[in-house]
Structure formats: structure tokens, C-alpha cells
Write a structure and sequence with these properties.
alpha/beta; Rossmann fold; eight-stranded mixed β-sheet; two-stranded antiparallel sheet; 10 strands
């Protein structure tokens, strides 16, 4: 700079090696603190989701709508069913009239006995029997829903029908969404006539990965491993997906179909999502049931 007519060099203080090292050390500490806070927050978030995962999976209604107030099909009557672990359940059952099969319906995670019952009307009209099952903890019933609990409930309903004289090979298990996992398990445990799946998933860990990609699969408690179990099924299988399903990716249903044994059938419904596919599902399923044969016990 210029001073008194002469040029002088500005005095510039360069950082010494000790200053540079101190700055780097401070920066490292800040980064470590930031990483530590991020890890702690991540672990807290994982802990919250782990603890709350069943409340995220199951959305039970906590009140029971009596059959007389539900405006359900008049062919229904209420039945009391007990599980092997002592849970008192209720179902609505319409025995078959002219059809050869009785359908056991396992609904989705946010449905109830009341809301699910209206899906039965076209099947009852076609002469088929229809039992709308209800899970523990839903519709005001006792208990808390878990994977093993829902399987115990499913067994109780099928055993009830068998005790009523409905042969095992005249039962068709029908699941929607969450209920597809129960239907597949029952098809592995009982010699059923057929399996109908609407909006199925591969497994709960793989579905959780879609909605919570940061949540480790090994922390999923209720796993519903449909992908593995479908390989062991030999009953006729119908899978139907809504092409625009934004809850369960349709490709999971298609993949499940690719793993299944024959006889199998798959339909993807255009312009249909997760909960609006039943009107299109009905004619497909009625046609499918008219074409399947009654399985011989042990075949």
C-alpha cells in the first residue's frame, strides 16, 4: 500500500503450522459431534419404529357392530369360535346353498367384521358359503393382533367349519392385503380347495422396505413370509392386483405368482388401486371357482 509517497508491502500474517493443526482438530471435533448426534437420532428413530411397528401394521376397530345393525346379508348368522390359546372370537357365516365351496375371508389391516362383510354378497348370491372371519383385537374382540395370533385365529375358523361338516377340500381361503398372509398360512396347514389373494405382498420385511427403507429387515417382528410359503402350496391359486396400488407394489403380487405352483392364475386390473378392486375381482373369482375341481384329500 502507498504511504508518504512510497510503496510499502502490507503486513500479512500467515497461519503457522500450529494454527492449522488446531483448526483441523476443531473441524474434526465438529464433524464427530455431528455424526454422533446423527447416529443417536437415527437409533432413537429406529427404537420408536421398532416399538410402534405393530400399531403401524394393525389398525383395529375397537367396537363391535351387531349383525342386526350392520345391514349385512340376511343369510349371515353370528358364530362364536374359540382359539387354542383361549381367545373368544366371533365370525359371520352364511352356509353354502347351491355352490360346492365355502369361502373363508381374511380382511386387510384396517378393516373390520362389519366393513368386510359386504364383500360377501355376490358370492352368497352365487350359492357359495361365506365366513367373514375377525381377528383378535379387532371389532372389540379380546386379545392383541400378532402374526402368530392371526394364524391361531385362522385355524380356529377353519376347524369350526370342519366341525360343522364342511369338508376341508371344499374350503377356499380368500385374503386381502394383510389377510393374504393368513390365507397362505392356512393353505399350508390345511388341504383347501383353493386360494384367492387380492393385493398380496411378498413378506412384511420386503413391504416395510418400501415404506421405511431405513428400517432393518431383521427388526420386523411379524414377518408373514408369503414368498417362502407360496412355494409349498399346491391348491389352485388366483392372484389379483390393482395396477395403481400405491400401498402394496403390484410387482410383489406378480413375483409371488411367479414363485407359485400350478394351477395358478394372475390378473392385473388397470386403473385400480388397493381398496377399489373388489368390483372387478368378483367376476374373475366367480369364473375361476367355476373352473377349479374339488381336490381329493391327500392329493
Amino acid at each position: 500500500m502507498r504511504k508518504d509517497g512510497a510503496w510499502q508491502l502490507a503486513h500479512v500474517v500467515l497461519p503457522t503450522p500450529s494454527h492449522t493443526a488446531a483448526y483441523k482438530g476443531h473441524l474434526v471435533k465438529v464433524v464427530k459431534i455431528f455424526i454422533g448426534v446423527a447416529i443417536i437420532l437415527g437409533l432413537v428413530l429406529l427404537a420408536v419404529i421398532f416399538k410402534a411397528q405393530r400399531s403401524l401394521l394393525y389398525h383395529p376397530s375397537h367396537f363391535y357392530v351387531p349383525l342386526t345393525e350392520a345391514h349385512a346379508n340376511r343369510a349371515f348368522h353370528e358364530v362364536a369360535v374359540g382359539t387354542q390359546d383361549g381367545i373368544a372370537l366371533k365370525a359371520w357365516y352364511a352356509p353354502a346353498t347351491t355352490g360346492p365351496f365355502t369361502i373363508v375371508f381374511f380382511h386387510g389391516n384396517a378393516d373390520s367384521l362389519y366393513t368386510a362383510s359386504h364383500n360377501a354378497d355376490p358370492f352368497i348370491s352365487a350359492g357359495y358359503g361365506f365366513l367373514v372371519s375377525e381377528y383378535r383385537g379387532y371389532s372389540g374382540l379380546p386379545g392383541t393382533p400378532t402374526e402368530n395370533g392371526l394364524y391361531a385365529d385362522g385355524r380356529a375358523y377353519l376347524r369350526y367349519l370342519i366341525a360343522q361338516g364342511v369338508r376341508e377340500n371344499r374350503i377356499i381361503v380368500f385374503g386381502h392385503s394383510l389377510g393374504t398372509g393368513v390365507a397362505i398360512e392356512m393353505a399350508n396347514e390345511f388341504h383347501v380347495a383353493g386360494v384367492m389373494l387380492a393385493a398380496p405382498y411378498l413378506s412384511m420385511p420386503k413391504l416395510a422396505r418400501v415404506h421405511f427403507p431405513f428400517f432393518p429387515s431383521f427388526l420386523v417382528l411379524d414377518r408373514f413370509e408369503n414368498e417362502q410359503k407360496v412355494k409349498n402350496m399346491h391348491a389352485p391359486l388366483l392372484i389379483v392386483n390393482g395396477f395403481d396400488d400405491n400401498i402394496i407394489p403390484p410387482e410383489q403380487g406378480r413375483k409371488l405368482f411367479s414363485l407359485a405352483n400350478e394351477p395358478r392364475e394372475f390378473h392385473s386390473l388397470p386403473d385400480r388401486g388397493h381398496n377399489d378392486l373388489f368390483n372387478d375381482f368378483v367376476p374373475l373369482s366367480l369364473d375361476w371357482m367355476s373352473r377349479i375341481s374339488i381336490q381329493k384329500p391327500g392329493s
